[in-house]
């Protein structure tokens, strides 16, 4: 995806992203983002020209311990009480 675009996002179903790739580091992209909200991806892409980024497949990401339960491969990492 970086062959044809300067930035690529792996969008998360909660409005954020699970991956970002850049052909050249652009730290300005990380400023002014309302982190840990459903607006992260939208605010990030607003800063870029539409033709300069691409989106991969939407997936669930892991933001907290409860999110691990949605990914069976990681259930062994969940502490049991």
Number of strands: 3
Round the Cα radius of gyration to an integer and report it: 15 Å
The ordered H/E elements are: EEHEH
Spatial strand order of the main sheet: 2-1-3
End-to-end Cα distance, whole Å, is 43 Å
Quick summary of this structure?
Helix content is 14%, strand content 17%.
Topology of helices and strands:
Elements: E1 7-11, E2 17-22, H1 40-46, E3 53-55, H2 65-68
Parallel strand pairs: 1-3
Antiparallel strand pairs: 1-2
What does this structure look like?
With 81 residues, this protein is an alpha+beta fold. The chain has one domain. The chain is 14% helix and 17% strand. It has helices at residues 40-46, 65-68; strands at 7-11, 17-22, 53-55.
Properties at a glance:
about 15% helix, 3 strands, alpha+beta, 3-stranded mixed β-sheet, about 80 residues, elongated
